[in-house]
């Protein structure tokens, strides 16, 4: 049996029609040498992720073609351990309960800021520990 390939970079995928809302986060991610991807809707996200090892997801709760929870369920059916954060334009306790019940790693409300990048760093550190020596990801660049 072949061992899984070593991950040499970390792919981050943001799914939201409002890419401008993530400008600060994208700059910090690129400075940390994360591979930044953006999709406007769920189907585009699935196309982008096809053949890639996306390590971290952020998706708006409301997408043009499906809900963020539907996208979360599609991704988790294939990669159950991948961290997937659901994002809302405005905080809602009801949406937060739904996001957590669906298995989201967390529920965030805009605006995206440095705190989100800290969440990325913490999540990527956990991925690094879980990866072990044979699948070590280079999360040290994020610190």
UniProtKB/TrEMBL annotation:
* SUPFAM superfamilies reported in the protein's UniProt record: CheY-like (SSF52172)
Species name for this entry? Answer: Bythopirellula polymerisocia
Q: Which InterPro entries match?
A: Bact_response_regulator, CheY-like_superfamily, Sig_transdc_resp-reg_receiver
Lineage, top ranks: Bacteria, Pseudomonadati, Planctomycetota, Planctomycetia, Pirellulales
Gene3D superfamilies to which the protein is assigned, alphabetical: 3.40.50.2300
- Keywords, alphabetical: Phosphoprotein
Q: Does the keyword Phosphoprotein apply?
A: yes
Tell me the protein's name: Transcriptional regulatory protein ZraR
Q: Where are the transmembrane segments?
A: none
Q: Mind listing the GO biological process terms from this record?
A: phosphorelay signal transduction system
Response regulatory domain segment(s): 11-125
């Amino acid at each position: 049996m072949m061992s899984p390939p070593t991950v040499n970079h970390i792919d981050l995928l943001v799914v939201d029609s409002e890419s401008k809302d993530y400008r600060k986060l994208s700059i910090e991610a690129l400075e940390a040498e994360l591979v930044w991807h953006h999709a406007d809707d769920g189907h585009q996200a699935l196309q982008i992720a096809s053949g890639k090892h996306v390590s971290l997801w952020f998706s708006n709760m409301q997408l043009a073609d499906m809900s963020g929870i539907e996208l979360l369920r599609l991704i988790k059916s294939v990669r159950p351990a991948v961290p997937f954060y659901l994002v809302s334009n405005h905080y809602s306790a009801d949406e937060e309960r739904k996001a957590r019940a669906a298995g989201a790693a967390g529920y965030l409300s805009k605006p995206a800021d440095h705190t989100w990048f800290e969440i990325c760093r913490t999540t990527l550190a956990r991925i690094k520990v879980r990866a072990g020596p044979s699948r070590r990801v280079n999360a040290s660049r994020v610190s």
